[in-house]
């Protein structure tokens, strides 16, 4: 992979909030290898313009991206095509030895395709995760990216099994652990060292009730009026017995207003917050009694810290969070959510453990493996 007599050139491609959280540990670790590898960050701008995403860079103490493509939002086709066009220009200029992609967003897929068509090797971090649900755009992105990647870095053993069953070469699969946990531990240490300002200081134990933190943004949950009404009704019932905080995603807020469901929030006791920076959000949920979410990464983070998690989905691409962790799939109805909460309220907590190699040292293993290859 490395050009003889020269430094290995690596492009790190990221486009959405979860990507930056996984890229940050790699950038920190890369500082120890500047004589062997040159890492440059490409921010595709898939979900946020630069100013809006700058908070993530500040939270993780990483410098400005070397390239900002400013692709913006749009349909899956428009967004993917935009990233391909702009990322190709970067690849032609930089002539990298390898492109490193993370996660499962459209930028992950687009940058992988672009690199491979230019005969540049691709490494995928979080390879092998599968939900089995082809209605999820992320599942398609994961499968296609893995199918063309040269090196597959896996977070949990199920990913190794999935890749083997799909015919991937054994010498291209590397179980390295979960880089999201590297970012989590970094955030926890930073919270200890500095005060978090702004929205993050508003949490107060007003009721003396258990703190519950909610995130909800998945299109399958919020774009359907009946389903969103049902989920909000379930949250409203749970909020009667808890201190519930809900940092609301712009998409969710827009749909609630569009469907006229504001009445389910009003006078419910649910504390609605603006979207939070990573550190603000971490300061909110790290001491929670329960997290209710339809996201992916928070399933892993709650497992790492031993915090109960209800996932408002019928499936998950992160099965280890259920098999060994604190995660419970509660479906997508208010009734099932409430049933799970009543069991939790009566002491129905899962026994759990931190999964193998979720130790905060994954970035070092990934870079070490890249250089050894």
How do the helices and strands line up, and which of them pair or pack?
Blueprint: E1 8-14, H1 17-30, E2 37-43, H2 50-59, E3 67-68, H3 76-94, E4 98-102, H4 106-117, E5 121-127, H5 137-148, E6 151-154, H6 157-165, E7 173-175, H7 179-193, E8 211-214, H8 219-222, H9 225-239, E9 243-247, H10 250-259, E10 271-273, H11 278-285, E11 290-293, H12 297-305, E12 309-311, H13 320-323, E13 327-329, H14 334-345, H15 362-372
Parallel strand pairs: 1-2, 1-4, 2-3, 4-5, 5-6, 6-7, 8-9, 8-11, 9-10, 11-12, 12-13
Q: Outline of this structure?
A:
With 373 residues, this protein is α/β, with parallel strands linked by helices.
Largest sheet strand order: 3-2-1-4-5-6-7
Mean pLDDT: 92
- Helix fraction by DSSP (H/I, runs of at least 4): 40-55%
User: Cα-atom Rg, whole angstroms?
Assistant: 20 Å
Question: How many beta-strand runs?
Answer: 13
What is the CATH domain class of the largest domain?
A: Alpha Beta
CATH topology of the largest domain, by name, is Rossmann fold
Q: Architecture of the largest domain in CATH?
A: 3-Layer(aba) Sandwich
Order of helices and strands: EHEHEHEHEHEHEHEHHEHEHEHEHEHH
Largest sheet: 7 strands, parallel
Taken as a percent bin, the fraction of beta residues is 15-25%
What is the end-to-end distance?
Answer: 7 Å
Q: Please identify which CATH superfamily of the largest domain we are dealing with.
A: Glycogen Phosphorylase B
């Amino acid at each position: 992979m490395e050009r003889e007599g020269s430094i290995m050139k690596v492009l790190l491609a990221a486009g959405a909030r979860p990507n930056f959280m996984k890229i940050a540990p790699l950038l920190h670790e890369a500082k120890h290898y500047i004589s062997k590898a040159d890492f440059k960050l490409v921010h595709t701008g898939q979900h946020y313009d630069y100013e809006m995403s700058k908070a993530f860079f500040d939270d993780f103490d990483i410098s400005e991206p070397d390239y900002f493509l400013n692709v913006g939002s749009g349909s899956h086709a428009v967004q993917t095509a935009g990233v391909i066009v702009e990322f190709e220009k970067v690849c032609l200029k930089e002539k990298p030895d390898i492109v490193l992609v993370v996660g499962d967003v459209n930028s992950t897929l687009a940058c992988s395709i672009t690199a491979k068509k230019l005969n540049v090797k691709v490494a995928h971090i979080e390879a092998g995760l599968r939900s089995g649900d082809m209605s999820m755009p992320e599942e398609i992105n994961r499968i296609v990216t893995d199918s063309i990647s040269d090196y597959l870095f896996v977070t949990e053993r199920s990913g190794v099994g999935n890749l083997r069953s799909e015919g991937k070469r054994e010498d291209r699969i590397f179980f390295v652990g979960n880089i999201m946990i590297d970012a989590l531990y970094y955030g926890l240490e930073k919270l200890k060292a500095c005060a978090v300002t702004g929205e993050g200081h508003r949490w107060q134990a007003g009721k003396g009730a258990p703190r519950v933190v909610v995130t909800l943004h998945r299109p399958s949950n919020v774009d359907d009026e009946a389903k969103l009404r049902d989920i909000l009704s379930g949250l409203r019932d749970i909020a009667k017995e808890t201190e519930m905080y809900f940092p609301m995603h712009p998409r969710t807020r827009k749909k609630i207003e569009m469907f006229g469901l504001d009445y389910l929030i009003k006078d419910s006791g649910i504390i609605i917050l603006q979207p939070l920076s990573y550190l603000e959000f971490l300061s909110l949920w790290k001491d929670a009694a329960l997290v209710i979410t339809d996201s992916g990464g928070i399933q892993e983070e709650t497992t790492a810290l031993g915090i109960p998690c209800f996932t408002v989905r019928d499936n998950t691409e992160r099965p280890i969070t259920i098999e060994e962790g604190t995660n419970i799939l509660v479906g997508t109805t208010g009734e099932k959510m409430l049933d799970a909460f009543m069991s939790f309220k009566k002491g129905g907590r899962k026994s759990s453990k931190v999964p193998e190699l979720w130790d905060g040292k994954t970035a070092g293993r990934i870079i070490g493996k890249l250089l050894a290859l």
